[in-house]
Amino acid sequence: MNPLPPAYRWLDDLQPLPRMVAEARKLFGTVEAQGSADNPVILGWAKELGLAKVYNHDEIPWCGLFAAIVAKRAGKALPNQPLWARSWVNFGKDGSAKPQLGDVLVFRRGEVSGHVGLYIGEDYGAFHVLGGNQSDGVTITRIARERCIAVRRPVYKAAPASAKPVELAATGALSTNEA
User: Measuring CA to CA, which residue among 83, 89, 79 is closest to residue 132?
Assistant: First the structure.
């Protein structure tokens, strides 16, 4: 696995992680291919999900694809049209009262676009999000709280003890465009 930035290395010591976070962690550091080439790993996710006919180039926004492969591998039901970030407002159950490690966060991006990723933690003004298509890769980035339109919790038979709110330092710039 690719190493996490120092501020997030605590994740590797936390066990058990929520399954979606564990699956996402395995993919940390995956990046788009440059230019007209495609990363076969990212295209492989579309194939694994049966979406290769509609998702065939890694220049197409892929945060929803990342969320879908992570959810599928974690054994979670996908929302309809999982490639669309805002479709994830229908995932799992409402977690907005108290966001916690492993929740799915949906953000607005412009009037109709969106972004989706996993809650890793929060600070006074932002959520720390593990997601795909963040600076063209699977990264952890800070996204302003006011952009969040939904917090969705995976359905657990028994939630892991690590699925709880995480307070983090406000380090790093806020993302303004995750594509």
Answer: 83
DSSP labels for 33-88? PSTT---HHHHHHHHHTT-TTT---TTS--HHHHHHHHHHHTTPPPPSSTTSGGGG
What are the phi and psi torsion angles at 21 (to 5°)? -65, -40
Rg (CA), the chain: 15
Predicted model pTM: 0.97
Give yes or no for residue 179 having a pLDDT over 80.
no
**Residue from 157, 117, 97 nearest 25 by CA:** 117
pLDDT for residue 55 is more than 90: yes
Say if CB 86 and CB 152 are below 8 A apart.
no
Q: How confident is the model at residue 176 (pLDDT cuts 50, 70, 90)?
A: confident
In the numeric block, the tokens 């309809």 are attached to: 80
Hey, what are 126's tokens?
């932002």
At residue 112 the predicted structure's pLDDT band, cuts being 50, 70 and 90, is confident
Q: What percent of the chain has pLDDT over 70?
A: 100
Compute the C-alpha angle 129/15/4, nearest 5°: 40
3-class DSSP state for residue 147?
A: helix
Closest to 90 in 3D by CA, of 128, 64, 56, 112? 64
